Amino acid sequence: MSYSVGQVAAFAGVTVRTLHHYDGIGLLVPSGRSHAGHRRYGDADLDRLQQILFYRELGFPLDEVAALLDDPETDPRAHLRRQHELLTARIEQLQKMAAAVEHAMEAREMGIDLTPEERFEVFGDKDPEQYAEEAEARWGGTELYAESQRRAARYTKEDWQRMQAEVADWTGRYDALMAAGEPSTGESAMDMAEEHRQHITGWFYECSYELHRSLGEMYVTDERFKAFYDSTRAGLAEHLKEAITANAARHTPA
User: Fold this and answer.
1) How far apart are the first and last CA of the chain?
2) Spatial separation of the C-alpha atoms in residues 41 and 122, rounded to whole Å
3) In terms of Cα–Cα distance, which of 151, 137, 124 is closest to 207?
4) 198 Cβ contact partners less than 8 Å away, ≥ 6 residues apart
5) What's the pTM value of the predicted model, to 2 decimals?
6) What is the pLDDT of residues 16-40, one digit of tens each?
7) Where are the alpha helices (DSSP H) in the chain?
């Protein structure tokens, strides 16, 4: 079975001119000719063209592709293994790029005027707006949510860095508190819970004790929030929730 240059061009999604060029430089010389002298490609030619297009998609220049394919020490299976490894790495890179674009889109939607580079520099792998869609679904119609949006839109890169530094400092101290065996209902834990509430109030919206208690419940009932806090220390989410509840109780008139 053989195919014309037009048929092969259609199969491979390339132009006839490209196939003529490959023939001219010796990269893909058709194995047959018709009685009229027209190019005819066999199955082996199609296999080689597939290899060429794989390497081209990976960014290899034509001369390197020719050297790779014509290397007598390399069999076709080795080419496929190599291409699979390269394509897998390319897919991982593209997935990271797609994630970067998604984060940049979220930043714009949240009114955070940072470049993607700045956003990753500031937040690393713990993005405080990673639950933006859910936050909007739960509280999008409230004044608290609107206030959070207004404040976030004004923050600079330096503001977000300062906020993240405060979060990191608080997290480290809460971790140490738990390591020391402090009970969740003790004075130290309640003071840390109060600091947590004031951080929210200072940076995002007025967080009442009632609302703070609701947030504490969410930290343990929503697996994503629980995983976020427990990534610092197992049980931190539950410990913090109890500290928040105790702190709210001591500040709320009976």
Assistant:
1) 90
2) 55
3) 151
4) 207
5) 0.49
6) 999 999 999 999 999 999 999 999 9
7) 5-12, 16-24, 43-57, 62-69, 76-109, 116-123, 132-139, 143-154, 157-179, 187-203, 209-221, 223-230, 236-251
